[in-house]
Design a protein that fits this description.
Elements (H helix, E strand, L loop, with lengths): L7 H28 L3 H47 L1 H14 L4 H12 L2 H12 L7 H28 L4 H26 L4 H26 L6
Length: about 230
């Protein structure tokens, strides 16, 4: 039975969507909250950012993955044509790849002979080793778009929830939102490190600091537009 592995695309899409959702909505909440003590304005701004950002992020993930697919297919067609029109050059490129792997000359010739006798294997090794490209399907683009959209939506709601529950005290709601968002970002960074590589606590702290500092840009904009005096 094949060993199950985490798919890097899924992990990166989840982190991209959730982190972006948290940081952007938190920035909006901080900016509006410091410039206005009006719960309705804060809620409208937060919800508008939530849905606009989530849909936009999902669409970008979908179209960018499709762009990678189109690039892969174009290179695939070009490589297949070169195998037919310039087989000697393409065969030599296989030899160079094998030498780079550390194979001795005798083994290089034997393995090259087997590879070029199998057009599918030949094409795949040229795509992956010469061009560094991996196949991308249209279903993968749809999954990427859906995952980024949903994770951005969930992430966006995290800084918004405290404001909803503490609507009678906007400033306290914003403070709780800031703390909850920083803690969530920490655990996203911690999770990323656990399923990839690195030190979990360092990764978590790094993401929490970067995300919080980025969101504070919204706070500074609101502070400047309010004349430097928090409402």
């Amino acid at each position: 039975m094949p060993e199950a592995h985490k798919r890097p695309g899924v992990i990166s899409d989840f982190i991209l969507g959730s982190q972006d959702g948290i940081v952007n909505v938190l920035g909006v909440i901080l900016g509006i909250g410091i410039a206005s003590n009006n719960f309705k304005i804060l809620l409208v701004g937060g919800l508008a950012a939530t849905f606009a950002e989530s849909i936009s992020m999902g669409a970008v993930a979908y179209t960018s993955t499709l762009a990678r697919r189109d690039h892969y297919l174009a290179e695939l067609a070009r490589e297949r044509n070169e195998m037919l029109t310039m087989p000697a050059m393409e065969t030599e490129e296989v030899r160079e790849i094998l030498r780079h792997w550390g194979l001795e000359d005798e083994a290089v010739e034997a393995v090259t002979k087997h590879i070029v006798a199998n057009p599918k294997a030949w094409l795949e090794i040229m795509m992956s080793e010469e061009l560094g490209l991996s196949p991308v399907s249209e279903s993968q683009a749809r999954r990427s778009g859906a995952l980024v959209l949903s994770s951005a939506l969930v992430g966006s709601l995290i800084p918004l929830v405290p404001v909803l529950f503490l609507q009678n005290d906007v400033h306290t709601g914003i403070l709780v939102s800031l703390v909850l968002s920083a803690v969530t970002l920490f655990f996203i960074g911690w999770y990323k490190s656990k399923v990839t590589i690195g030190k979990p606590y360092r990764s978590g702290l790094q993401m929490a600091i970067i995300g919080t500092v980025s969101a504070l840009a919204g706070f500074l904009v609101g502070l400047l537009l309010s004349g430097g005096k928090p409402v």
